[in-house]
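Quick start: what a row looks like.
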Amino acid sequence: MNHDTPAGGGPRRGDVVSTHSVFGAPCWVSLTSRDLGTTQEFYTAVLGWRWRGVKLGEHFRVALADGVPVAGIAAVAAMWQMAVAWTPYFAVPDADVAVSRARERGGTAAVGPLSFPPGRAALLADRDGATFGIWQGELVGNWEAWRRASPTFIRLHTRDAFDAAMFYGEILDWATGRPGCCQVEYEGGEVVLRSQGDIVARIDSGAVESAPDPSVRPHWQIHFAVADVLDCARAAEKHGGSVLSEAEDEAILRDPDGAQFTVTSRRGR
């Protein structure tokens, strides 16, 4: 996603990579919020992010980690009557095709495709209700720098990992053998997604061979790599958030608006 979209400002021309050559992989994460100021203060305190504006207007900001754009914030939850949540975006060669495929397989399209030059985006939900986005167009400038600074990975918690893998695989052209596509593996009861050899997503549905759990609310969880998980947890509590679970190497946090995310120790990457 280009930096002048909800993701940020324009890339250097020599660094431009498009979704025609890199597709099916997570390419951006974005947060909807109700109050931009509160959201920025919280994530600066917890994750050390800095911020810059974008051409889309005063309701949008880009988060920077060590100068590299890592996430987008859109203060549109109240204005657009959207839920407050972190959402992963996947690279696709054609947004219209991806949306049609999702609908044909029982998914829904909540927003778009909409034009955000130099590309197009849509917000979808899979057939179990987990929300995700798609992006067609230029990816962030200096793609490899974004990959290194981006979330450690994203994880889909769902009722049936194998069914979900089929859904996403058919929409996003996973494991098709085409140059640039993502590879799918099955490890320890999880579906593991690799892009260019790196693990970029996992899909899990609980214990191996167990029946789908109807109590699970399917959702994509965003994991951010941090130097000190416990420090992040204390900062979250101090700045209006909460800690849902906590261990030395990983904690699930909630921001003041209610959006959940995970911080994972950089040592465990």
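That is the whole record. The radius of gyration is 17 Å. The CA atoms of residues 24 and 250 lie 27 Å apart.
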